[in-house]
Amino acid sequence: MIFTAKQIAGFLNGEVIGDPNVSVSSFSKIEEGKPGTLTFLGNPKYTPYIYDTDADIVLVNSDFLPDKPIRATLIKVPNAYAALASLMEMANQKQPQKSGIGEISFIAPSALMGENIYVGMFAFIGEQSRIGDGCKIYPQVYVGNNVQIGKNCILYPGVKIYHDCVIGDNCIIHAGAVIGADGFGFSKQEEIYHKIPQIGNVILEEDVEVGANTTIDRAVMGSTIIRRGVKLDNLIQIAHNCEVGENSVMAAQVGIAGSTKIGESCVLGGQVGIGGHITIGRKSQIGAQSGIISNTKEGSEVIGSPAFPVKSFFKSSVILPKLPDMYRRLNAMEKELAELKKKLSHND
Question: Is the N end or the C end of the chain the one with fewer CB atoms within 10 Å?
Answer without folding.
Answer: C
